[in-house]
Structure formats: structure tokens, C-alpha cells
């Protein structure tokens, strides 16, 4: 079968395929065409079955990917999606972030305490050894919940006191320095003059200090 005959056969098949009830003629024409070209021919049933299998395979792949994605999201946000774990997860994450921020904040802010940063880091690391040992013994003896409750209570009190001290340190010492300067200014003492022994002597000294003639 040459090219012209093949082309004419294709035109005939297309013409019959557009007419209702002519599927058998189209099938026979395509069969003849494939036999002349020595090519295997699948029937319409085989083609439909193959197409349906491809569609089912594509749908199954899409469903499996969607199922895996939903499972991954569900496992990722299981602490938020589960009502019983929601509050507990919030408390744990809050304590975790707060403890880490306070620990590293104080560790990196040691220069405000007027200490040697290297000595402070060394002593802080050295103190963690007995802290871990005591924590292990307390957990084995009292249990995890009581140990963590006592630990966070002590840490909260200590951090509150330390934060208050850091905030009031400059103010307290600045006021103390001003008071000391005022006392020294009000009660001057030289080698030839002793400090006053009473209110009258102090008033006389103040008059002499603030006098215009002096």
C-alpha cells in the first residue's frame, strides 16, 4: 500500500467516523490500513480500557499525593489540632521560650553586673554540673512534674529579684552617691576643724559655708 492509498483510506475512515452507525466501517478500514502497514492495531475496547486505566492511575496518584500531604500537615500541627494537647503545648512552648530567653539574656548580659565576663562564663558552666546532677536526682525521687514545678518557681523568684536589682542598681547607687556628696558638703572637715557635734554647730558651719564673706 503506497502513500496515496493510505491517505485515501484515512479520508474514508474519517468520513465514515462522522456518520452515526458507521463505527464498524471505520474499524474495518483502520484494520485494513494497519494490516497494510504491518502495524498492530488495538480495538476500540482496548483503547478505552487503556485510557480508563491511565485515568484511574492518574487519579490514584493524585489521591495518594493529596493524602500524604494531608497526613504530613496533620502530623505537623497535631499539637494544635488536638484539643487535649493544645493548652499543654502552649504552656510547654511558653516556658521553653521564656526560660531560654532569660537564661541566654542573663548569660550574655553579665557585663551589666560589673563582673568579669570570662570568669562569669566559667563559673556559670561550672555550676551547671551539680545542677544537672541535682536535677537528675530530684526527677528520680520526686517525679518530673514536681521537679519542674519547684525548678520554675525557684527560677522565677531568682530572675525577678535579679531583674529588679539590675533595674534599680544604677538608681540606688546614684542616690547614695548624691546623699554622700551632700553629707560631705554639709559637714566639711579639715585638719584644723572637726566635724560638728550637734545641730547648733552644724548650722554655724552652714552659715560659714554659705556666707558671702567667705
UniProtKB/TrEMBL annotation:
Subcellular location(s) of the protein: Membrane
* Membrane topology recorded in Swiss-Prot or TrEMBL: Multi-pass membrane protein
- State if Protein biosynthesis is listed as a keyword: no
Keyword Protein transport on entry: no
Its GO CC terms?
membrane
- For this UniProt record, give its keywords in alphabetical order, as a comma-separated list: Membrane, Transmembrane, Transmembrane helix
Source organism's superkingdom?
A: Eukaryota
Q: What is this protein called?
A: Uncharacterized protein
> Which species does this protein come from?
Petrolisthes cinctipes (Flat porcelain crab)
Amino acid at each position: 500500500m503506497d502513500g496515496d492509498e493510505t491517505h485515501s483510506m484515512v479520508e474514508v475512515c474519517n468520513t465514515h467516523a462522522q456518520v452515526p452507525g458507521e463505527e464498524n466501517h471505520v474499524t474495518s478500514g483502520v484494520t485494513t490500513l494497519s494490516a497494510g502497514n504491518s502495524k498492530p492495531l488495538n480495538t476500540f475496547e482496548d483503547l478505552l480500557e487503556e485510557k480508563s486505566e491511565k485515568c484511574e492511575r492518574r487519579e490514584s496518584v493524585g489521591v495518594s499525593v493529596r493524602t500524604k500531604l494531608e497526613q504530613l500537615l496533620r502530623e505537623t500541627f497535631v499539637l494544635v489540632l488536638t484539643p487535649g494537647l493544645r493548652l499543654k503545648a502552649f504552656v510547654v512552648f511558653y516556658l521553653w521560650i521564656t526560660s531560654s530567653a532569660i537564661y541566654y539574656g542573663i548569660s550574655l548580659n553579665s557585663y551589666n553586673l560589673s563582673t568579669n565576663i570570662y570568669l562569669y562564663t566559667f563559673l556559670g558552666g561550672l555550676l551547671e554540673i551539680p545542677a544537672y546532677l541535682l536535677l537528675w536526682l530530684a526527677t528520680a525521687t520526686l517525679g518530673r512534674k514536681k521537679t519542674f514545678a519547684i525548678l520554675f518557681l525557684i527560677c522565677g523568684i531568682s530572675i525577678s529579684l535579679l531583674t529588679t536589682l539590675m533595674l534599680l542598681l544604677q538608681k540606688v547607687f546614684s542616690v547614695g552617691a548624691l546623699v554622700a556628696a551632700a553629707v560631705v558638703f554639709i559637714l566639711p572637715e579639715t585638719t584644723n576643724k572637726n566635724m560638728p557635734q550637734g545641730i547648733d554647730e552644724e548650722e554655724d558651719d552652714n552659715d560659714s559655708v554659705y556666707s558671702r564673706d567667705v
